[in-house]
Amino acid sequence: MNILGINAYHPDSSAALIVNGKLVAAVEEERFTRIKHFAGFPKDSVKYCLREGRLNLGDIDYIALPRSPYARFLKKMYYGVKIPALLCHRLYAWEKTLTVKRKLSDLFGIDESLIRAKIVKVEHHRAHLASSFFVSNFEEAFLFSADALGDFGSTVWGIGKGNSIRVLGEVAFPHSLGFFYTALTQYLGFLKFGDEYKVMGLAAYGKDAFGDELKEIVQIKKDTFHLNLKYFLHHKKYIDMNFEDGYPHLDLIFSPYLEKRLGARRGPGQPIEARHKNIAFSLQKRLEEVLFCLLKTHSLKGYSNLCLSGGVAFNCVANGKIFENTQFNEVYISPAPGDAGLAIGAAFYLWNQALGKPRQFVMEHAYWGPAYSETEIGCQIEARKGDFQKSGCTIKRINNEDELCEMTAGEIAQGKVIGWFQGRVEWGPRALGNRSIVVDPRREEMKATLNRRIKHREPFRPFAPSILEEDISDYFKCSHLSPFMLFAFEVKDEEKDAIAAVVHTDGSARLQTVAKTTNPRYWRLIDAFKKATGVPVVLNTSFNENEPIVCTPQEAIDCFLRTEMDILVIGEFVIRKHS
């Protein structure tokens, strides 16, 4: 049985294919459009999934969509009457769910009647819960999803057992931890969709000078939370959300009352003052307080496993503190816990829950996107020979993997900046060793070097380490595995200087643990670096320059040539710049 999951007309649009209960392919549309958080229809993602599965559109039995027009219907109608523009937006979104087959027929140039797949709509947060639990290795777990808004819900919790999910409670619009964090992110001058992670990094530089004010904005009420709506606009006026095509846009959602209480908001590009750092700190602390309260209040006795999903699950700082603040011993978060993951969640919800099929897949790695053969890579290199000559590059092919990794590790140890392009594209927003820029973590100056030569990021944002999973307990105070770079743990005091380039100002690092079984070539690279230096860690940042992570060899070559990377290791080919 072939199920195609599609997240469309929503940020981070994506597609995923499962065949007989096993994931075959998954990718975000931004990898193809080169527009970050692309929010239209994932046409190229669908094409890739079918191509990877060697299927035609007519072979698909079900199409799973993570949107249910009937979910929280009365709530939608109440606010639709109150805010007419919002009702128009909801009706438009509803209409879009009815035209998926028509869109696919146009896309593939076939008659709509030939698409035999049945359309199944899955409520947003149930798709989130499924995207984590049904691909985890837990037989049973407590499930928790939190984001800004989906099907007029913001937070949902329940339990998963075997091939079923049971929802136990929820928080609905207008109350939302996602909107809370986004509103303060906007107030702090970070207006782009998805900028919340910048505030998470900034928080480490502040102190809790605004704790009382933040407790006033989001309040814990018995077993749930409420927003103090005086600080927000989304419940009383239509907040424009451009989720049709291109880059998603979200209007300001905080009210003038927030500025009355906290002072004038910071404009984009204005200096970051101590006040802004302190607000970020108090914001992060309040999110953690509410999150841990909900997890402790609603989790059932006897459950030591947690599956976390929704956009709030990207908050790796909070994730890293779950173990010391709750009862949970094991936590699973998929590599795409946000809206991209809805494509996988809807498909597995259909397979396991709706159709009652047994679970037979565990997502142990994130490599589900396109790959390119050595022949394809070689053809792209040949086509760009003139550009390489102009840039003074030499090209060498090393078809022995140990030699390739040893050579690259030696260059990293010498302070070179390496573009590392291997295998299939990562699923989710993190570069996890297949589309990465890799440098020496021992050299603290590498942070400034990367920002000056390639990344051009705010200086308060940290870089992440990739560490051999067998060495995690030697460097970090918590030894829980983090294969998808979604946990921040405190670095042991005695090792902070050894990996200074990846230690944040608060002494933590957002780490990726690398297993030999799931990414053998990247593991060998880090192991070779360990043998050369004694340090089983490399600094890993995404292979891009203010754009989505590179997908194709062409994009990798373009990024390499226009930036100040020293060496590109692309498949078996080593391209070196000579000054």
Structural write-up:
- The strands form 5 sheets. A 9-stranded mixed beta sheet has the order 15-23-22-16-17-21-18-20-19, sandwiched between helices. It has a 5-stranded mixed beta sheet with strand order 3-2-1-4-5. A 5-stranded mixed beta sheet has the order 8-7-6-13-14.
- Helix 6 crosses helix 14 (342-354), helix 8 (196-203) packs across helix 11 and helix 17 (401-413) crosses helix 20 (520-533).
- By secondary structure, it is an alpha/beta fold.
- A hairpin with a 6-residue loop joins strand 1 and strand 2 (14-19).
- The longest helix is centred in the middle third of the chain and has 25 residues, at 274-298.
- It has 21 helices and 23 strands.
Large-scale geometry: globular
What structural category arises from helix and sheet content?
alpha/beta
| CATH structural class of the largest domain | Alpha Beta
Secondary structure: helix percent: 25-40%
The DSSP helix count reads 21
End-to-end CA span:
55 Å
Mean pLDDT over the full residue set: 95
Low-confidence stretches: none
Multimerization status = single chain
By CATH, the superfamily of the largest domain comes out as Carbamoyltransferase, C-terminal domain
In which order are the strands of the major sheet placed?
15-23-22-16-17-21-18-20-19
Number of strands: 23
Q: What radius of gyration results from the CA coordinates?
A: 23 Å
